[in-house]
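Let's practice the habit of predicting before peeking. Look at the sequence and jot down your guess about where helices and strands might fall. Then scroll down.
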Amino acid sequence: MAHVPAPGGFEVPLWRAVAVFRVASLAYVCVVVARDADRYAHPLAAGALVLAMAGWTVATAVGYAAPARRGWPLLLADLGVVVAILLVTPWVMGREALAAGLPTLAVAWLSGPVLAWAVSGGRRRGTAAALVLGGTDLATRGMVTPTALNGAILMLLAGVVVGHVARLAVRAEERLQHAVELEAATRERERLARDIHDSVLQVLALVQRRGARLDGEAGELARLAGEQEAALRALISAAGPLAAGVPAERSASGTDPARTGVSGLTLGLRELVFRAGPVRSDGVEAPVDLRELLGRYASATVSLSAPASVVPLPPAVARELAAATGAALDNVARHGGERAWILVEDEGATVTVSIRDEGPGFAPDRLAEAAAQGRLGVAQAIQGRLTDLGGTATISSTPGAGTEVELTVPRRNP
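Done guessing? Here is the structure:
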């Protein structure tokens, strides 16, 4: 399948360089013809030939400018026109002028097709065009002079070098495009993983946990829910399939359903509520007060400290920051923390939310181990969200001394 470069791709400057070369070499042809016309056998024919070369220069500049026209018809026509000019050169100049060592009419202009073939197809095409034109030039002269031979060799080297550079440019463009697509796909996968983790996974975990002690069809449904949860975690986790026997993870966007009686479906609906924000008259969502979103987490065991004034953030930023805070609080409930404290700091250019608890803490390598097992509460629900927002998530913990999570996002005014 032929490579069709995207608009603005790496090949575009190369084609422009070919067009510039042909114009510059045509100007040199005009200088040579004006200087040596009185020694030609047919000066008027030489002038007509220069006009034909000028017309073909314009035609190729227009033709090669469009990627769809850079195919074999134009490439072969380009090569054929230059070969025809080389064949008619001995008659126009005369054998005496050629024997006297005068440069041929095409001079450097005949290298145009070599460069075009090299850019379009790489070293092989460039070499083929150079051999055809170089051989034709030497044959029409009727003699092989050192100057003519050097010109043919230089044209051959140009075809090889330019073709090699052109192929490198194409490969670099393809790799860059692949990297961009891969990054976009990865970011979308992480976003979907967070949404699934905050809704579907927690429902499956709740069904498995509460139905595991039941008999009959209810127990079978619980077992199937556990299998589907494990399969879904393996699908959305970059770590691959989960190890057998890994316990199901609980909610990452609120308190633990088993401890509070709040179902995973309710937590998922709460996430949907977070996504709805007021709309201004111009159709753009108005800033959201972060304090209102975080206030939903305040309870007898969770204390919230926030500025007295409004903490406005773009709706998407505020919702994701609130969801990351909920994931951190879920970890507190899941790991036995009795109390937690939320501190909101509006520092102008940034907004920081700190979550501290008095739980048992964890070892430094616990986060990496959890991510390897497909447990996405921290890797996706917290750190992934902050990364997408252009912020940072700092997690500090010591066994027996509790955990502190610091979430910082830059303020972007809508």
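How did you do? Residues 6 and 80 are 29 Å apart (CA to CA).
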